[in-house]
Amino acid sequence: MMLSQSEELSSQSLELAESIYSTKWYEMPVEHRKLLYIMLVRAQKPLVFSCGGLYMANLNTFMKTMKTVYTIVNALINLNK
């Protein structure tokens, strides 16, 4: 559930970057342009979870990990029978 919310947040962040860029930022005062620039740079970086710094986690990697864990647990249960 948390990963799907992360994916949604990432897509909204990119939409925010597009919205900022499409505004008439060139008509704004310099102070506002600087703030918009900071927001634009940050919004263009996707939000990702990293798993121990080894790899980036998204919904796809989470599902693959869960399938692998399920397979291993079932194999261990069947070995004990």
Broad structural category: mainly alpha
Distance between the amino and carboxyl termini: 34 Å
Q: Which blocks of ≥5 consecutive residues have pLDDT under 50?
A: none
Strand content: 5-15%
Total E-strand runs: 2
Major sheet, described briefly? 2 strands, antiparallel
Side by side, the strands of the main sheet go 1-2
Fraction of residues in helix = over 70%
Total number of helices: 3
What is the H/E string?
HHEEH
Rounded to an integer in angstroms, the radius of gyration calculated over CA atoms is 21 Å
Identify the overall geometry.
rod-shaped
Mean pLDDT: 80
What are the key terms here?
81 residues, mainly alpha, two-stranded antiparallel sheet, rod-shaped
Helices and strands, with pairings:
Blueprint: H1 2-22, H2 30-44, E1 49-51, E2 55-57, H3 59-80
Antiparallel strand pairs: 1-2
Description:
The protein has 81 residues and is mostly helical. Helices cover 72% and strands 7% of the residues. It has helices spanning 2-22, 30-44, 59-80; strands spanning 49-51, 55-57. The model has no long low-confidence stretch (mean pLDDT 80).
Give a brief description:
The protein is mainly alpha-helical and 81 residues long. The chain has helices at residues 2-22, 30-44, 59-80, and strands spanning 49-51, 55-57.
